[in-house]
Amino acid sequence: MAEESIVEPFIKASGGVLRSEDIVIEAVRDLIKDEIKRYIRTKLESNPELKQEVKEAVSDFIEAKVKEGYALMKMAKCGAKLGMELVPEKLKDELAKELVSMFEKEIGAVIDRTG
Asked: Whole-model pTM?
């Protein structure tokens, strides 16, 4: 019996979900994307001024996204504070402990994923 390629078992296991035409179309799309990227890189390499401008724009964009995330965290903090103001006095301590526990777990999970 001839040896199967690495891809064949995946195609057979897909139960027809991944038709060969779809795979070919997706591969051609990837080739076209690669060619477009190559063309853009060539244009940028031939124009160092434009290349630097693109780098700065990307840097500005990333900085804006970080600021957006920070603003969202500040809004969440304000929302939590407002929520605590609305809670009856006898429940504040219990709710505060639950919130701290929840945030500790979430922050720990984020650190685990990024670390």
From this structure: 0.56
Structure tokens belonging to residue 81: 């504070």
The SS3 of residue 22 is: helix
**In this model, does residue 71 exceed pLDDT 60?**
yes
Nearby residues of 11 by Cβ (< 8 Å), 6 or more positions away: 18, 20, 23
Give residue-wise pLDDT tens across range 25-50: 999 999 999 999 999 999 999 999 99
Q: Which helix (H) or strand (E) holds 24?
A: helix 20-45
Compute the distance between CA of residue 64 and CA of residue 2 in angstroms, rounded to an integer: 56
Q: Which two tokens stand for residue 77?
A: 């903090």
CB 95 within 8 A of CB 84: yes
Distance between CA atoms of 84 and 16, rounded to whole angstroms?
A: 54
Q: What are phi and psi of 19, to 5 degrees?
A: -75, 155
Q: 11 with 18: CB under 8 angstroms?
A: yes
